[in-house]
Each structure stands twice: as C-alpha cells, then as structure tokens.
Amino acid sequence: MEKGNLSVGSENILPIIKKWLYSDTDIFVRELVSNAADAITKLQRLDGMGETSLPADETFAIHIVLDKEARTIKFTDNGVGMTADEIKKYINQIAFSGATDFAEQYKEKMEAGGEIIGHFGLGFYSAFIAADKVTINTLSYQNNALPAFWSCDGGIEFEISPGDRTARGTEITLHIGPDGEEFLDDYTLRRVVKKYCGFIPVDIYFENAAAKDTDAELVNDKNPLWLKKAADCTDEDYKKFYHQLFMDFNEPLFWIHLNMDYPFRLKGILYFPRLKHELESIEGQVKLFSNQVFVADNIKEVIPEFLLLLKGVMDCPDLPLNVSRSFLQSDGYVEKLSAYIVRKVADKLTGLAQNQREEYNKYWDDINQFIKYGCVREAGFYEKCKDAVLYKSTEGEYFTLAEYLARNEEKIGKKVVYASNKQSQSQYVGLLTEQGVDCVLLETRLDMPFSTHVEGQEDGLQFVRIDAELSDVMKGDETQDDHTDLVALFKEHIGDEVDIEVQNFKNTVIPAMIFLPEESRRMQEMAQMYGISFGDTKAKDKLVLNGANDLIAILATGNTSGDDTKILCEHIWDMAALSHRHLSPERMGRFVERNGVILKKFIGS
Ligand code: ADP
Ligand code: MG
C-alpha cells in the first residue's frame, strides 16, 4: 500500500471544491457519469485504431447503483479503466486533465465521431460534494494490467493499493456524508441523473439496491433528436421530443432545427411555445448541452437574452465551460452565436409569413411578444424579420407594415394609427374605421418601445394613437365661421383645464372629443415612468367641439338660457372625457347628478 498527499501545495482543496467551485451540489453526478462515458469512448476509439481488440458483440454501459442502507452510490463503467500509475497521474495530480492527455497522445490517429467530454473542470473531485469518502476500484484494458484500488476520505491524504476488480473498467463508490443526504433518495437521484445525463451517448442504467426485484432502468436516450438531420425528423418527432423534454403537453407552434459548423459547432432545436400572456409571465427554457451532457438552463452569458422566451436545446461542444463567464463574452462567442440564431429565427419567421400566411396569422397572437422583444433587444433583428412583423387591426385582420401602408397611406400619410385599448377607445376607433381606415392594436407595455424602435428604423414613419388628433380623414368641410364666442362660452362653464377648439367632423353624432398630441402624451408617459414632474409645462388635453353637430350648433347661436348652457357645456365635456379616460370620483358624482336634472327636464317635471 502506498500513501500520499494530493498535490496542490499542502492545502486541502476539497473543502474549497465543495463550497465554492460548484454552486449546484448535484453536479457531481454529471462529472462522474461523463468521466465514465469518456472512459468508454476512449476504449471504443482505441479499438477503432487497432490499439486493442474487443469482441464484436461487446456492449458498453454505465451502471449507477444506489444503496441507501449502505449509504453508497456506485458509478460503474466498462471503459478503459486505470492502472495504478494512471491513478497517480490523473487522479492524484489534481487539475491535470487526462482527457487532454489522451487527445494529445492520439491526435493523429483520432477518427471523427465520439467526442471526449472531459472538459468540465475538477470533475472527479466533485464527488466530495456529496461524499465523505470515495474509493476507486479499477482494471485497465491493457494486457496484463493489475487491478488498482484508491481511497480518500476527503482530507489531503489518499492511499493506493492493489485492487480486486476482475472485470475491465472502473467502479467509483461514493460513501455519502451528511452533505449528500438528499441524494440517497431514489427519486431525487434518478431525477438528477436524467437531468444531466438523459441524452448521453452511452446506455445508463439506474438501479436501487433496496428494490431487489425491479430491473435496472435505462434512463437515457443515446440519440437525441437534435443530432439528427432536420430532413429525417417528422413533425410528430419534434412534438414528442418537446413533450418529453419540457413536460409541457401544449403543442409547440413551430420550431427551428439549428445546425452550425463554423465558426463553432452548434446543434439544437428551438421551439416557439404558445405565449399569449404579457411578457413577464412568459418563462422559456433553453437547455444548454455540451456533447449531449446537460450543462444548465437559460445561461444568460451564452444565450442571447431574447431567446430566453423560447424553449429548446442547444448543444455546443466547443463551449469552454470551465473558463470564466467574462471570457465567453470577450471571446465574441455570444455575439457569433446570437448572429447565427438571429438569422435562423428571422429566416424561419419570414418563410412562414411568405409561404404559410394564413397559418402564420394564427400564430401571431402567441408569438408577437417574443418578436417585438427581439426587435427591441437584439440589434439587427427587426431589419431581418420586418416582413414577418404583423399588426393586428381592431377588426381582427393582420397586416404587415407594407400592407397597412398600401391600404391607408393615401388617406392618412405615412402613419400607423393604433389603439392601446380597444374597449375604452372604441368611439375614436369608430370615427376612423367608418372612414375606411384601419386601426391597429398596440395594447401591451412592450408595444411602446417596439413602435418607437420601428419609427427609428422606418424613415418618416409615425405611430399615432387614435386619440392623438382629429386626423384629416375624420374632418368635414372647413368652417369659415368665427368661433370665438363659442369657445369663450365653454371656457366660462368648464374652466381652463383643457384647450378648446372647433372643427367640423364628418361624423355629426358626436358633439365633442378630447385629443392629446402623440408627442405630448409620450412625454407624459415617460415622465410618469421615470417619476419626473413636468410642472407647468405639462401639455393640456384639447377639447375639440364638432361644428357639424346639432347641439354645438345650437350653443353657437348663443340663444340658450343660462342654466341650460351650463348643463350642456358641462355635459358635453364630461361625455367627451368619458370616452377618453375615466372621470375623477368627484366629477363622476357631478355627472350622475346632472343626468338626473336632464332626465327631469326631459319628462317635463
Ligand atoms: P477530466 O474529465 O476533465 O479529465 P476529471 O477530474 O473528471 O477531469 O478526471 C480526471 C481523469 O481521471 C480523467 O481524465 C481520466 O483520465 C481519469 N478518470 C476519471 N474517471 C475515470 C473512469 N471512470 N475511468 C477511467 N478513467 C477515469
Ligand atoms: Mg471529467
């Protein structure tokens, strides 16, 4: 037997690994299984290179056995195994990756396929996250190799002695300590294995020693869909994979199969889930894999932010996972990844919009938030997918910007007229649509930054809210009359709160409406958002009296009695205000009271 110290100075680094290196305590499962998978891949490679010869019917597998009573978890593989010398070199000398060594040694002879995973970091020692003591029982594939045994109880001392393993391969036993208690639970451990290793390219069997009569469960799928060619996958395949991966039994709307070779490799599938709700309630999930080993969900440093609304998988074998996150950014990795995905997503959307427009219209309510968010957050996204950006009208039709302008530009100029609330702005909407102009709906919080962004991209285009102005199409003939008296009359009764002017509407039913120019309203909204006060400079609402309306015409004659005039002016103003926004409680009270007076007059009492 030989004893020695783990050779990183004289410090015991295991507590550091435990506390600091891995914030996810379940990560040891990933590390030990990927080492086992590497050991098998290496042996397959060696066999392929003629360095060893295995029987033709050799089957490879990893076994994970939980024994709650003995408080152990065993990871066994039938891969290359290790000699005592290799243990000394690869295990004792911490931070010396045997994977790199192997790759270096056989660089020339390596054929394509079968990646070696070993690049996560201080992989093996992560076992001490859950274990107090770890043992290795191993037999190398090499001719006449002797079995070796290694044991370490979490201090800086280890021991090596001859082992008793008779089958080629490695068995790693974790003696679970208090920190790993939760992993002694069958359900928990099984879940963790499936999470990290559900798609690893070697069969993994999970076994519970306590349940003697049940068979070991095969827990992984060696050929995940994302590795297949898109041409070989059916819609059913994609849907099934989605359900399996996300436990989401809603159908995804559509998906994009990613496959990139340069400047780095990436394979994956991105799904567009049904979204419907406002942005904050959308929770996507993009699972990042490296060579079929799960790394993490939604890594913001790697996945472009706007994609976090999607669901899917991305397998990036070239991703240097053990380097710092700031390195990832400075490397331009994220930018290149973004650029590729942005293009793929935009191509898919544009293709759907062009070739399956009816279907695409139906998707729009679900996907519009995602696309708008992408346009605002991701430089260049709007430019690439603008032909797939739709505007839904109050009548339930869907137009691209070009289509909207083709229908309406002649009447309203290079503008998009929108309502931010179909219900409460219905009177305004009616006034416009009865002139044959389409009004679109921009009803969510994201629509404001989105439309501002589009204005910045489209020369001379303006988004105008339906209550911003009495647009020319709504106006009747110009009046030559002098309205000074009429305006003065209103001022006398309703005060100075609003500016007042007179215009002839085409619509003769409505006596008056309130408008607030787009610019002023946006300023106010901004001010509100950032808590700035405008003081006196706050723009006033404008009450536009309809010169073509009977009541206004009667008031303009100046022949109404004092009391009636007051009631009429106040009531016209209140009604205009009501279809613009809510009345204050006091004003509502007066409005109701006045209604009573009017009704009494009506029945002549
Ligand atoms: P890495 O996987 O990055 O090389 P690890 O700490 O996970 O780092 O493992 C160190 C080395 O120990 C591996 O490269 C390999 O040479 C050896 N090793 C670990 N587990 C096994 C195993 N199950 N079979 C054979 N060799 C192993
Ligand atoms: Mg490893």
Give an overview of the whole structure.
- By secondary structure, the protein is an alpha+beta fold.
- The protein is about 35% helix and about 20% strand.
- A hairpin with a 2-residue loop joins β12 (about 285-290) and β13 (about 295).
- The protein is elongated and about 120 Å long.
- The structure holds adenosine-5'-diphosphate (ADP) and magnesium ion.
- Magnesium ion binds near residues 31, 35, 118 and 120.
- The site of adenosine-5'-diphosphate has 21 residues, from α2, α3 and α4.
What ranges have pLDDT less than 50 throughout 5 or more consecutive residues?
none
Radius of gyration from CA coordinates: 36 Å
Ligand inventory reads:
adenosine-5'-diphosphate, magnesium ion
Mean pLDDT: 87
Shape: elongated
Describe the secondary structure blueprint for this structure:
Elements: E1 2-5, H1 14-21, H2 27-48, E2 61-67, E3 72-77, H3 84-92, H4 98-105, E4 131-139, E5 148-152, E6 157-162, E7 169-176, H5 186-197, E8 203-208, E9 217-218, H6 235-246, E10 254-260, E11 266-272, E12 285-290, E13 293-297, E14 311-315, H7 325-330, H8 333-355, H9 357-377, H10 381-385, E15 390-392, E16 398-400, H11 401-412, E17 415-419, H12 426-433, E18 440-441, H13 447-457, E19 462-465, H14 484-494, E20 499-503, E21 512-515, H15 518-530, E22 542-546, H16 550-557, H17 562-578, H18 585-602
Parallel strand pairs: 2-8, 12-14, 17-18, 17-19, 20-22
Antiparallel strand pairs: 1-6, 2-3, 3-7, 4-5, 4-7, 5-6, 8-9, 10-11, 11-14, 12-13, 15-16, 21-22
Helix pairs in contact: 2-5, 8-9, 9-13, 14-17, 17-18
Bound molecules: adenosine-5'-diphosphate (ADP) and magnesium ion (MG).
